[in-house]
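Students often ask why we bother encoding 3D structure as a string. The short answer is that it lets us treat folding as translation between two languages. Here is a chain of 215 residues written in the first language.
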Amino acid sequence: GIKLTKETLNEMGKNIKYFDGVDTWFDRINAHGEKCGVQVEHYIISSGTKEILDGCSIAKYFKAIFGCEFYFDPVTETPVWPNLTVNYTQKTQFIYRIRKNALNLMDDTTINTKNNEEIRIPYTNMIYLGDGMTDIPSMQLIQNNHGHSIALYTKGDTKSLKKLMEEKRTSVCAIADYTEGSDLDKIVKSIITSIGNEEYLNYKNSQVAEREFNE
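And here it is in the second language, the structure alphabet:
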């Protein structure tokens, strides 16, 4: 008896229950990034339903949300066909898009350029938080390119973590606790601090190189 429309799915997003600390996470992490000279951006890459995610209270914090989408009939406003599906391997394509700032899914030109100048966010400046099997290929991609992947778990759910660590598919594991002072909070802030320090050193080195060249 529920009419399935985009509006209905958006409403479902309002009922999502978050892990502890999620509601204050974004402002807190953004503020830490600003202190370190790092502009922090947040993205969702999900195999879940985008229309539901669009309706959640934290959607405003994300620069882009990628997920499974419906095609809606323009007359009945009900879904009639999958417009976009996202599985575990397809998640990696959105990392490529984020890396090159090709967030418009119709933009195939930017995503396929070979010019390194088109890279807006290098892998080394990415932090991927994954909590399921569909995240493993993306975590592996980030890890292989010297970025940072964090495997999240709930208390008592450590079954597959050992294998992930042994296969070096993740940098570190942490309980999905987003509160200030938690392990996850400290880990992410430490990574952002190291990214800021690395960018500063690169900037200073480029200044020295330019000065020596001019002299």
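Translate back mentally: Strands lie at 43-49, 64-72, 79-84, 127-130, 148-153, 172-175. Keep this in mind for the problem set.
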